[in-house]
Amino acid sequence: MRYDIKIGFGGLFLFCCFTSFAQEMKVNSTNGSTLFGIGATSIRDTYLSPFYYTGTEFRMTNEHHTLSGHFNGKWSSFRRLDFSFSRTSNPAQTGSELSGFFEWNWGYHYRFPVTKELKLLAGGLTYVAVGGIYNTRNSNNPVSIKLGLGLSASGMALYNLHIKNQPFTLRIQVISPLLGAAFSPNYGQSYYDIFSLGNYDNVVKFSFLNNLLACKTIVSADVPLNRVTIRIAYQNTAFTSCFNRLDTDIYSNTFLIGFVSEFASVKGKKSKLKEVFNSAYY
How far from 282 is each of 19, 67, 251, CA to CA, in Å? Predict the structure, then answer.
């Protein structure tokens, strides 16, 4: 009888030790997604034309959310790649433009756990933006180059819910640039003047809310199925800038769909605890 009691206490002790060890060995997983989408866009660049060009946009996004290993999990890192390509036409359908834009964001969010289901996040992101617009009608100065970098504000809300037995994760996020620097030729200046003759005066402009207003609004829903998780999203992009008396307006509405993965890099003893993860998203 005493022997059985000793075994019972010994087993309980080992279970408590393992539970405590497993909690200490929790690793932070990365929530990653890649989405592809199509939508409508409207673009006006007065360096090329005074008219709005409208057409179809194709977009690809890639995101990664990871809990920080510091500050007791109150911060999470965020990385996002956003690439778009569009073909647009002028109102008279007599000319077209080809546009391509790439933007990279990286930064951190502070996490406010309101309830078990609802999380609010707010933080700052760096951004690097590269792109261009090509007007097929113009013989002189047919291209408008877009370059920018700076800091953006980001806010996000995550909500987990169930409809019958199906779980969902809803997200709404807003990203808006605050300050930075942008490249813009002077009014009437050609790129030949800039790059061949070396007339660089005033082509790099400080950007702030007075000359650059932009906002990306992302609404998405994660739908876990048997073997995969699908993310369905809508992205609204609004961009307007005015540098050197040259205006640029870009508006788009895009619907996207893709797959989500939750993964972690573990080594050694941690590899035996593959199911003990902390998610930055769910």
Answer: 22, 11, 31
| 24-58 residue pLDDT tens | 456 788 999 999 999 999 999 999 999 999 999 99
Give 211's strand partners: none
Q: Which residues of 105-130 are buried (b: 16+ CB within 10 A; e: fewer)?
A: bebbbebeeeeeeebebebebebebb
Measured CA to CA in angstroms, residue 66 lies from 86, 205, 261 at distances of 31, 34, 12
Report the greatest alpha carbon distance in the chain.
Answer: 97
Cα distance between residue 255 and residue 235, in whole Å: 6
Q: Which residue has the tokens 């819910």?
A: 161
Q: How far apart are CA 16 and CA 13, in angstroms?
A: 5
Candidates 115, 138, 133, 118; CA nearest to 184 is 133
Token look-up 């972690």 returns 264
pLDDT band at 269 (very low <50, low <70, confident <90, very high): very low
- Looking only at the bridges linking them, the beta strands covering 229-243 and 212-224 are antiparallel
CA distance 189 to 201: 11
Q: What angle do CA 282, 128, 41 make, to 5 degrees?
A: 80
Cα 255 from Cα 236, distance rounded (Å): 9
CA–CA separation, 35 and 62 (whole Å): 7
How many Å apart are CA 239 and CA 150, to the nearest integer?
15
- Please identify which residue in the block is written with the tokens 């100065």: 141
